Amino acid sequence: KALDPNCAVIMLTSLSNRETIEQALEAGALNYIRKDTPKEEIAKALEETIGAAFDLS
Which of 3, 45, 47, 50 gets the most CB atoms within 10 Å of its CB? Predict the structure, then answer.
């Protein structure tokens, strides 16, 4: 995000504690997805996040 402010950053992690989520979002992530999320939900989250990122730019 620091190199390209228009980059849509999505955090994909196995961690799910509140602090990690808050840190990711404060650092510029537009979305936060756990690795154990079903692939259909990951695909939907990616589509929604990318769509929102393009709407903002």
Answer: 45
**Where do runs of H (alpha helix) occur along the chain?**
18-26, 39-56
Pairwise CA distance, residues 7 & 10, whole Å = 10
Does residue 57 have a pLDDT over 60?
Answer: no
How buried is residue 33: exposed, middle or buried, by Cβ count under 10 Å (0-12/13-18/19+)? Answer: middle
Work out the pLDDT band at 43, boundaries 50, 70, 90. Answer: very high
Contacts of 53 (CB under 8 A, 6+ apart): 6, 8, 30
The predicted model gives 42-54 an average pLDDT of 85
User: CA-CA distance, 2 to 19, in Å (whole number)?
Assistant: 21
